Amino acid sequence: MNIVFNGYYTLIAAVIVLLIGKFLINKIGFLRRYNIPEPVAGGLLAAIFTTIAYNIWDFSITTSAELQTSFMLIFFSSIGLSANFYKLKEGGKSLVIFLFVVSSFIILQNFVGISLATILGIDPIIGLIAGSITLTGGHGTAGAWGEILETKYAIEGATTLGMAAATFGLVMGGIIGGPLAKHLINRYKLKEENQKYTDEKDKKDEKTIDEFVPFEYPAAVRLITTNSAITTLGLFAACLAISDFMTNIAKDTFFELPTFVWALATGVLIRNILENILKVTIFDRAIDVFGNASLSLYLAMALLSLKLWQLSSLAGALTVILISQVVVMILYAYFVTFRVMGKNYDASVLSAGHCGFGLGATPTAVANMQAITNMYGPSHKAFLIVPLCGAFFVDLINASIIQVILKFFA
């Protein structure tokens, strides 16, 4: 028996999943230590429950696809709306070099995934799912591409497969980043562990916080107002409307792209036209709040409707590919990212960040870097480059590379 939730019930269920996730993280040290997001913790528990219910009572749940897609598009719009061209100028040469390092890794990640899938005798596109779609892309990209792969490329359970792979990557990205950076720092004697940067030192006056490096002071309070919230909602509405229009216009043409890519690109254009040409103030804090809330709700809905029983035939092959991807990430960060970025303290923090979003997501990357800088001291360069690259450029580069590969398979 399949129960279909409409938009109202889907939203209620997603909020319950988030509350359960918050409870689990507060109670279980492992989840806190490795920065597992609330929707992932609660959603996986819900997925396990629905799997048991399916096996015993033949019971499953389908959530509102329309509401789920809307929250996904709001999240990707928030990434675009956060991309100020001022940051590009401040990042300078180091940002360009890091983008080259990251882009090369995305290609390598997909090569490893597709090659191993072919060797293991499964569909090469599944190797792509266990590549940059889920690992560099994270849960949001996994859900977005999963729907496309299911409908257009007939990959059954692609969304479920993607969520499982993305969750694995999220955990491993949080596990390997800190230890790798610490090993590099100690081996090359880059910094002494003689300064502790606690949350109390992060609690700076709000007016002194640099908006362009928001993650460097995680304990600082950032306020939003009713006016900024309403204005920001208007920006999101414009992004969704234009992305829907462009998706219909570009359908069956050479520049056809997934709707979430149009939403992201529209956000970039709107942000920089309003701010740099029309001199309109954009409220980054409100964008961050709505974007993160939308991602949490989207992930909760996606994980709530996971059908884990669809993965049984692929579990062995998927495990081999994902473990191999972790090994490749460690070696790449150690021998390429660290050395190309200067073989110094900033480079070690950047390597920890690269492990975070190379396997998981930008929040994981930031958490990795905070763990290192709390122990050894600040790295302004890393906190400027990684959030900008991981939250914006990676999605565009990743989408372009995936699109080219899928055109080949098509």
TrEMBL record:
It is a multi-pass membrane protein. It comes from the Bacteria. GO terms for molecular function: glutamate:sodium symporter activity. Keywords: Amino-acid transport, Cell membrane, Ion transport, Membrane, Sodium, Sodium transport, Symport, Transmembrane, Transmembrane helix, Transport. InterPro entries: GltS. The chain crosses the membrane at residues 6-25, 37-57, 69-88, 95-119, 158-181, 219-242, 254-274, 286-306, 313-335, 382-406. Signal peptide: none annotated. GO terms for biological process: L-glutamate transmembrane transport. Belongs to the glutamate:Na(+) symporter (ESS) (TC 2.A.27) family. This is Sodium/glutamate symporter. The lineage of its organism: Bacteria, Pseudomonadati, Campylobacterota, Epsilonproteobacteria, Campylobacterales.
